[in-house]
Write a structure and sequence with these properties.
The protein is α+β, with helices and mostly antiparallel strands. It has helices at 101-110, 118-123, 132-145, 150-165, 186-201, 209-216, 220-231, 235-253, 258-264, 270-281, 285-296, and strands at residues 3-7, 10-14, 24-30, 43-48, 53-57, 60-64, 69-72, 78-81, 90-99, 128-130, 172-174. It has a six-stranded antiparallel sheet with strand order 3-9-4-7-10-11.
Length: 299
């Protein structure tokens, strides 16, 4: 079982060593102890099996649907957030495969062919989302790793790596800028985790830097600097991204008027909401709704 470093409301996962396997394959429920903002020194391939919502990878915030496949490099902060009713949970919602740089280095020393994967590992420092046939092939191999043992397990692992490393450019998307968090500061996970809880609990209302600073036991200026250094992004910018990501989900999933959705994500001024949405997503709320609904309509 994984060990936890617990700091207030935040959890930092320490990926356990299992002498039977060279890497960790793990399916978990949502919500759960590891389904929150965290980072760790292992690479992680994350598959959202049975849920959708908003993701945070590094300084990127966006929407995800069931079936999303992402490769994350060492110490890239990440979180997948799903809105559920009180008491609701999703069994086996996520599947992750985690492995260490030391293992990759050993593979390259014993098998020079593995060196061809280095470009993939470098790109993973920004997070990579895979789509299309690359994602389908990757997911099939990822699922197959779990019950496999011995040579079969290794074959599925390298089949997974092969699917990701040969993905054409139009089936990959870089998610974030490269950034290294203060990995030796356990307080960072606590403060960012507590701040995210506060933001998400008040996404439809007022979110204040001063309140978040008080929750962290800091002055506003000290909290602002610390949050930026710890999370890789400005507190106010993160609030805006999370509000707009939630708005995008409502535009896609409901028929509510744009004005009502603006209020539901904390924007009292419709013009400001439209302006911020256009700047963040590159199109107006109306254009976004028409595009995503048109794309989801069966031909």
């Amino acid at each position: 079982m994984a060990e936890l470093w617990v700091a207030g409301s935040a959890v930092r996962e320490v990926i356990p060593l299992d002498p039977r396997f060279s890497a960790r394959w793990h399916a978990h429920d949502y919500p759960g102890p590891f389904a929150r903002w965290n980072y760790h020194p292992e690479y992680e391939i994350h598959y959202a099996r049975r849920r959708s919502g908003r993701y945070i990878v590094g300084d990127s915030v966006g929407l995800f649907d069931a079936g999303q496949l992402v490769l994350i490099g060492p110490n890239v902060p990440h979180d997948w957030i799903t809105d559920l009713a009180a008491g609701e949970s999703i069994s086996q919602s996520d599947l992750v495969f985690q492995f260490r740089q030391e293992w990759l280095t050993q593979c390259e020393a014993a098998m020079p062919e593995a060196g061809a994967l280095q470009a993939l590992w470098r790109r993973s420092l920004s997070g990579i989302e895979f789509t299309g046939d690359a994602a389908r092939r990757g997911i099939a191999s990822l699922e197959a790793i779990g019950p496999a043992v011995g040579a079969d397990r290794l074959a599925h692992i390298f089949s997974l790596f092969g699917a990701l490393s040969t993905a054409p450019a139009h089936e990959t998307r870089t998610l974030a800028r490269q950034w290294v968090p203060p990995v030796h500061d356990p307080l960072a996970a606590e403060i960012v985790g507590r701040s995210l809880d506060y933001i998400l609990e008040n996404i439809s209302g007022t979110v204040r830097l001063g309140t978040a600073a008080t929750l962290a036991g800091m002055s506003e200026s000290a909290f602002s600097r610390y949050f930026t250094r710890s999370s890789g992004q400005n507190f106010t910018a993160l609030v805006r991204k999370l509000r707009l990501a939630h708005a995008a989900k409502l535009l896609q999933q409901t028929g509510d008027p744009v004005a009502r959705i603006a209020l539901a994500v904390g924007y009292e001024n419709l013009s400001n909401f439209n302006r911020q949405f256009l700047r963040e997503l590159g199109e107006t709320p109306t254009q976004y709704r028409a595009r995503v609904r048109g794309a989801s309509r069966p031909e």
